[in-house]
Each structure stands twice: as structure tokens, then as C-alpha cells.
Specification:
There is one protein chain. The protein is of the alpha+beta class. The chain contains 14 helices and ten strands. Strands 8-9-5-10 form a four-stranded antiparallel β-sheet. A hairpin with a 2-residue loop joins strand 1 and strand 2. It starts with a helix and ends with a helix.
């Protein structure tokens, strides 16, 4: 029975004699981390992982979402919460429409199931491009980071060229992938230990990448240090709109708890400001749709992404409206950028 971890463990470790056997009270461990290590040893493991992914997608997202369809209008109605997350992000439940998979090809296919109401309508999807890194450039006032955005450089390629000491045209896809992990990890106060795990390298090498990052963007290091110090002094940090988040962990005597608080202090002004900005954009978009008597309606927000169900006759106008309102929601020292697409399904519009 492939769904039985106990039977699968016996097959892999006793009958097939594969390495990395790890026993717990219920038998051999067959969690995803263990199976990933075994992937090079036998094609069976890849099939098991693919089966688990498909079963999860089918059970949680296909069967699960079908149960949520309203008999009144054939739509799925989620609840959006303003006050549940500490950073100020909206959250979604019953069902959660903000966690439709996006990291795998098979998971992304699920977005084909989300369609406009009928042939008269289409979906317009707008997604902020690297909004958290743009906010970081703004609050840190780092010359190199500002220069990269002002000159429309690919920020991950720019960072990769610096941490690997190569010219931008010599940056490989793998180098860019590592740099992307560093860029986004810095916003979350990532450690060399965590970065090493994320990108599959040694802790020393990960530490070197972080050191080179801060050498490239020195004001980012100063900003992160200052925001933690101010957070500890005041007991809270703020977004760019002065919305506060209190962080009692910053005054904890326990070292690990305090370190957790420091990561919160680094990330909240960035992620929280992004949440504030998209909420402003949502209000402005909704007001314009009403003011201009549009048939189109805002139907979904997924963190940095807005989706409008647009009447075909208005689609191009809505595309321009959505881009304009998202990009002018707030004036930063770098321009905000929203990537907008139109499609009959969420997959096509993304």
C-alpha cells in the first residue's frame, strides 16, 4: 500500500536496502526530506513523490474546492481577514484561495480550473514585481540597490555578478538562483545556516555570499541593524505608513526567542509595507471601477497579486487601470512595477 508509510519503509529500507534509514516509533521515516535523499538511488522514489503530490493536489484542491462551490451562483466564496496576520497581510479561509500551488508545474496547472464567468468576461491579473526588494531599496536608501532599480536591471543577476565576482553576462542560471535566495533571504533575516540549507551549499560558502551581499549593498546592513535596535528600544517597528507591530520577543532573555524577534523586526517593515500598499491599491481600484461605472469587478487578492473579472469590452481599459492604480499607490524612491496579463483562465492570465 503506497499510502502506508510503514509498508513503504519496509520496502525501501529492508527489502531494497536503501541508505538513510531513520526509525521512529511508527517505523521507518518516509517523509519528503528522506525520500528526496533517496531519489538518485531508484526511480521508484520519484514515482512515490509524484504520486504523493498528485494525491495531495486532488484531495485538497480539486475535491476540496469542488465542495466549496455555492449552489446559488456556481462560484467559490472565500473569507478574507484583515486582522489575523501580524504583518498586516490579508489572509483567506473557508476556503483559502491564497495558497493555490505555484511552485510546481503540476500545481500551477490547477489555475486552469479558475475561469471567468462566461464568454462575455475574461480575467485580468496584475502582480507587483519584486515589491519587497523595492521597498527595501527605499527604506535602506542604498545607492547600489536604488541604482539597479532605477536602471531597470535584473536585480538577481546584478546581485549574482557581485557575490560571484563575474560580469552580468557571465551569470549562469544557477548563480542567479543562488542570488535570488540571498536577495529574498536578507529581507527575512536569513542566517548562513538557513541559506546553506536552502541552496544546498556549505555554511561557510553561504556566509561568504551574505558577506559579499552586504559589501555590495552596505546601507541594507546598516538599515537592518538600526531597525532591530529601534525595535528593541521602542518595543515595536513600523511600516512606511507608521502602522506598528509590537515585538515583545526583542526584550526576551532567551537568546533564540530574541533572535526570532530580530528577524520579525527586519521583515515586518518590508512585508507589512507591501501589505499596506496593495490594500491602498485595492481601495483605489474598487473606487475607480465604481466611479467609471464598469461592469468589471475585483474578485481576488493573493498577497502581491490582484485579479479582476473584466467584461470583454473593458478588458484593455481594465488592464491599463489596474497597472496605473497599483504602480501609483504610493510614491517611493523607486518606481513600483506591476506586470499585467489577460486570460480566460487564471493560468493564462498569470
Amino acid at each position: 500500500n503506497i499510502n502506508s508509510p510503514k509498508q513503504l519503509g519496509v520496502l525501501l529500507f529492508e527489502k531494497m536496502g536503501l541508505p538513510f534509514a531513520k526509525k521512529n516509533s511508527r517505523g521507518f521515516s518516509t517523509d519528503a526530506e528522506t525520500l528526496e535523499k533517496l531519489r538518485p538511488y531508484t526511480p521508484i522514489v520519484d514515482l512515490v513523490l509524484r504520486y504523493r503530490q498528485a494525491a495531495k493536489l486532488y484531495g485538497t484542491y480539486i475535491e476540496g474546492l469542488l465542495k466549496e462551490i455555492s449552489p446559488k451562483d456556481g462560484r467559490i466564496h472565500s473569507t478574507f481577514n484583515q486582522m489575523l496576520t501580524q504583518t498586516g497581510r490579508l489572509s483567506s479561509n473557508e476556503p483559502n484561495l491564497q495558497n493555490i500551488p505555484v511552485r510546481t508545474n503540476l500545481g500551477r496547472e490547477l489555475r486552469r480550473f479558475f475561469v471567468a464567468e462566461n464568454e462575455e468576461y475574461t480575467l485580468v491579473d496584475a502582480d507587483y514585481s519584486q515589491i519587497e526588494l523595492r521597498i527595501l531599496a527605499h527604506v535602506a536608501n542604498d545607492d547600489a540597490l536604488l541604482h539597479a532599480f532605477h536602471n531597470h536591471q535584473d536585480i538577481h543577476t546584478t546581485t549574482a555578478s557581485q557575490i560571484f565576482h563575474v560580469s552580468p553576462d557571465q551569470v549562469t542560471p544557477e548563480m542567479r538562483k543562488y542570488a535570488k535566495a540571498v536577495n529574498f533571504g536578507i529581507v527575512y533575516g536569513i542566517s548562513s545556516f538557513s541559506l546553506a540549507i536552502d541552496i544546498g551549499t556549505s555554511r561557510a560558502e553561504a556566509a561568504a555570499y551574505i558577506e559579499r551581499y552586504f559589501a555590495t549593498y552596505p546601507n541594507v546592513k546598516i538599515y537592518l541593524k538600526n531597525v532591530v535596535e529601534q525595535g528593541a528600544k521602542n518595543g515595536y517597528v513600523t511600516t512606511i505608513f507608521n502602522r506598528r507591530r509590537y515585538i515583545p520577543e526583542l526584550s526576551a532573555t532567551n537568546k533564540n526567542t530574541r533572535a526570532f524577534g530580530e528577524r520579525i523586526a527586519m521583515n515586518t517593515p518590508i512585508q507589512g509595507s507591501a501589505a499596506d500598499i496593495i490594500k491602498l491599491a485595492m481601495v483605489n481600484v474598487d473606487r475607480r471601477l465604481a466611479k467609471e461605472h464598469k461592469k468589471s469587478r475585483l474578485i481576488l487578492q493573493v498577497h502581491d497579486e490582484l485579479i479582476i473579472e473584466a467584461h470583454q469590452s473593458e478588458a484593455d481599459t481594465i488592464k491599463a487601470l489596474l497597472k496605473e492604480e497599483m504602480e501609483k499607490a504610493v510614491a517611493l524612491s523607486v518606481l513600483l512595477q506591476a506586470d499585467v496579463n489577460i486570460g480566460k483562465t487564471w493560468y493564462d492570465a498569470k
